[in-house]
Write the structure tokens for this entry.
Amino acid sequence: MISEPELDGGDVFVTSEVLTETPPPGPPAPPRARRPWLWALGGAVLASAVWGGGLYAYEERQPSGPDLGGYKSVQSLCEIAEFKALTGVLGEPSGDAMAAGMDDPAVFETSCPIMLGPSESGFSVSLKYTLHKVSDPGPEFAARAKYYELTTPIDGIGEMAFFDARGGEGGEFRVLDGQAEIELSVYRQYETDEQGNPLGDTKPIDLSGIEVPMTQDLLAVMAALKK
């Protein structure tokens, strides 16, 4: 018979083992790391927002170009230039008008040359329109007018305007209005004989004060260019 061990006069040692089917718990698992694609997605969204904001700010800083003051490009300058005032003084158009010009992102330019009065003793009329879309024509305008001997300032039209009567043979006008330059010239046209005398029976028209009808027609053209 087996019994618990006994030792007389000594310590009692008891040894026991407990068996169980459930293993003891192991060490705690390390914290779970966030998925890398979530971080990548968040970074992409943030970068997109920053880039979009930067692009918007960049576009806001970009110059939009000078104020054209309502002036625009036109298909045919001759169609909007009626020359009512000059026609009343010099006569009806006697030739077909021909338009020429260029259209560029930096500048638009066109012209309209016509003849007024009799073909043998009429007047050559030339209208030129330049719209500066980028550069400022102001600093050079007065200097160019002086170079072409247009020394008489005219008030009441545009920002600056200069005129010259060209020795009584016509007149030349230059007007600056913001980014637009308009030029109008009138010159007497006639055939002469060997002695320099005009041919034909038409009485010469006195051109003194020609700047008045020229101013009226220029104001009408400037208004039409803004419609």
Q: What stands out?
A: The first helix runs from residue 36 to 61. The helical segments are 36-61, 77-80, 84-90, 138-147, 211-225.
